[in-house]
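HUMAN: You are asked to prepare a plain-text protein record giving the amino acid sequence and the backbone structure tokens, both parts labelled.

ASSISTANT:
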Amino acid sequence: MSLTVLVIVVFAGISLVVLAVHFSGGSEIAQIGSKQTAVDRLSADFEEETAEDVHITRDTRTAFLLLASGMVGVVHSVGDMFLTRCLWPAEIRRVERTSDEKLLLNLNDPTWPGGVFEFEDRNVCDAVFDHLQMLADTKKEIA
């Protein structure tokens, strides 16, 4: 078999696999449809935690749950699945406002380093930022 034919066969095979995964739903991005969805998802992994308030980002891919324990829970979509975290003070490397509706969260977690999150309005962003900042300040008090 010539090299040209081999390249065409390999390219066609890879293309068919990618299309099959896409059309079978493998390239879907999970969305957080409601506050209750976020609470249920976090509760599945952290049964002992109780959410007092839930704030979902504008793109509906991340929810920040303000927990009764004083911690902040996070439900974040990764592909068609959800990643859940309860943030501890030592995990927060940096939290800052980048605009009225956006905040930057950097974590000391190689599996999920955080990101930039945009909210519907300034008040929601303020609430999430204040809780994250409180956690970060707790780390400073302990050290």
Observations:
- The chain has two domains: 1-28, 35-142.
- The beta strands are 51-56, 62-67, 72-78, 81-87, 92-97, 102-107, 114-118.
